[in-house]
Amino acid sequence: MSRRGQAVAVLVEDGFDDQELTGIVDGLTTAGLEVVLVGPLAGRTYTGRHGLATVTSHMAPGAARARTFAAIAIAGGYAPDRIRMRHGLVDLVREAVAAGRPVAAMGHGAQVLISALVVSGRTMTCWPSIAVDITNAGGLYVDRPVVEDGSIITARKGDDLPQFVAAILRAIDARGAA
Amino acid sequence: MSRRGQAVAVLVEDGFDDQELTGIVDGLTTAGLEVVLVGPLAGRTYTGRHGLATVTSHMAPGAARARTFAAIAIAGGYAPDRIRMRHGLVDLVREAVAAGRPVAAMGHGAQVLISALVVSGRTMTCWPSIAVDITNAGGLYVDRPVVEDGSIITARKGDDLPQFVAAILRAIDARGAA
Questions:
Q1: CB proximity A116 to B under 8 Å
Q2: Closest CA in chain A for residue B138
């Protein structure tokens, strides 16, 4: 099936991991998907933690409906620490999970899943510093490059980018084919 | 009683909040206490998240015994995300709590308390992004400038520095007078 006309929301805030966000956006775009950057405000520029990448948000969460996206992706770095305090972005994640849309988080991105209260009972991976937070939220932490549990896809770190993007594409295509 | 001869261990790693670490060190030193900077390695330089402050560690955790310190303090920023992955530093915090020494954490510093497994049943405050992690760890999160629960002292952010340092000094003096 064609991926044309399908869009993935990628959540952005200051402090994202430059390599991870760039890799996710490039991987999805190359695969034929539209990427919509959703940040706290529309049309604002956000900077990576290493200052190597800047992105401009297309949309604020108030204008975003989870059902219009084929998936939601969250890069790691320190942006998730900010994203998890933005109710609109956290609500978008929760709505996407409730609607069965694939939600994919890399590294510290899993912090947003904790704040969206969607971790309990799930097997997940993440950056090791927050493994205890996943466990305390009722999740089962495992140290594997990429973990898929239902519609939730998680990865440890930037090294896992190829497998992470491949898992997102598989999940989108599986929904499209269903 | 005199504070002379008493030392406070301040935990350091890259990414500490510049204002918070500087404020804690200055406040304790001005009050007559010795400050010992304990980092993953001795004699290494660590840089604040804003690049405004650098510090050189005096000691690695392998050389530090919790009972030799009058208290332990942890600044916020992104250093706690690194400190919580250093088993030696986390063990030092756990030993200090077990020994009844005051342990004080500001902002994200509470992440280290989560990893040290000392949060359950405690009333605490922290930077709001991690309030859910405190709750999931069995703590009771409250939004107050400084919270003292037994030997554990927590504060929200840099604005709370004067009250935070005052609480550490009170706890040290109370132990000395006991």
A1: no
A2: A136
| Residues forming a β-bridge with A36 | A9
Return the DSSP state at A6: -
The ipTM assigned to this model is: 0.95
Domains of chain A, by residue range, sit at: 7-173
Pick the residue from chain A with its C-alpha nearest to B119. Answer: A136
The whole-angstrom separation of Cα B130 and Cα A111 is 9
Residue type, A139: G
Distance from CA of A176 to the nearest CA of B (A): 35
Tell me the pairing of strands B140-141 and B123-124.
parallel
Taking an 8 Å cut-off on Cβ atoms, the answer to whether A114 and B136 are in contact is yes
Catalytic residue among A50, A58, A87, A108: A108
Predicted local confidence at residue A95, as pLDDT: 97
Choose, out of A47, A49, A130, A157, the residue to mutate when testing the contact with B (most B CBs < 10 Å).
A130
CATH number of A7-173: 3.40.50.880
Q: Which pair of tokens denotes residue A104?
A: 């994919």
Residue A165 and residue A23 in contact, taking contact as beta carbons nearer than 8 Å: yes
pTM of the model: 0.96
CA distances from B110 to A162, B87, B134 (A): 34, 16, 8
Q: Is A81 on the interface with B (CB under 8 A)?
A: yes
For residue A108, list chain B residues with Cβ-Cβ distance below 8 A: 81
Q: Is the pLDDT of residue B15 over 80?
A: yes
Backbone angles phi, psi at B10, to 5 degrees: -110, 120
Closest-CA residue to B101 (of B174, B49, B156, B28): B174
Distance CA A177, CA A173 (A): 6
- Regarding the domain with residue range B7-177, which homologous superfamily does it belong to in the CATH classification? Class I glutamine amidotransferase (GATase) domain (3.40.50.880)
Tell me: pLDDT of A1 over 70. Answer: no
